[in-house]
């Protein structure tokens, strides 16, 4: 998606060998017009699937997932990383190793928001090693729901997440695909 690639070129910051900081439009400050365009692009890609729910993980997945839910007019559910007084029973849970924090989190979704009647579209901000998406797929399996596919805002093709999903024949739509970081610059994959 050209609009997103241009924004990454303008505002993204490469950190070290494998991390892109996009906190001016996605991960801290959020550009709502850009989110709406991303949501529309995911809608265009998955509109023929019988989707009933959009699923993501807090917190950075929520903005693009909400925009997608608005395009589909469907509910958005986000997995929570912390249990609380109001979220402790009747949960689906999965362990997720965080690429950016280098810690393992338990993610949870209340059983009342996902069931065997659901067909789910997963949306997330980044695809790196695929751990966040794998955790969500695990939860979809626990609920007996069906996975329609995965929409990713920024995929890093040099990490293993995409291959894991391709090997399982899961439909993945990534709106920007980064092949490498070279001298602090982003190199996009040419499809
Ligand atoms: P994975 O689970 O695929 O290894 O990593 C995906 C998660 O890690 C995303 O939900 C995102 O929050 C975070 N992440 C992975 N790579 C990056 C990156 O290059 N930049 C930022 N800002 N977050 C990333």
Automatic annotation (TrEMBL):
EC number in record: 2.4.2.22
Subcellular location: Cytoplasm
Name of one Pfam family that matches: Pribosyltran
GO CC list: cytoplasm
Pathway(s): Purine metabolism; XMP biosynthesis via salvage pathway; XMP from xanthine: step 1/1
Domain Phosphoribosyltransferase: 38-172
Binding site for xanthine: 20, 27, 156
Catalysed reactions listed for this entry: XMP + diphosphate = xanthine + 5-phospho-alpha-D-ribose 1-diphosphate
Group of enzyme by EC: transferase
Binding site for 5-phospho-alpha-D-ribose 1-diphosphate: 128-132
Keyword terms of this UniProt record: Cytoplasm, Glycosyltransferase, Purine salvage, Transferase
Molecular function terms, GO-annotated: xanthine phosphoribosyltransferase activity
An individual GO BP term: xanthine metabolic process
Domain of life the protein comes from: Bacteria
Assigned protein family: Belongs to the purine/pyrimidine phosphoribosyltransferase family. Xpt subfamily.
Subunit record text: Homodimer.
Reported function: Converts the preformed base xanthine, a product of nucleic acid breakdown, to xanthosine 5'-monophosphate (XMP), so it can be reused for RNA or DNA synthesis.
Protein name: Xanthine phosphoribosyltransferase
Lineage: Bacteria, Bacillati, Bacillota, Bacilli, Lactobacillales
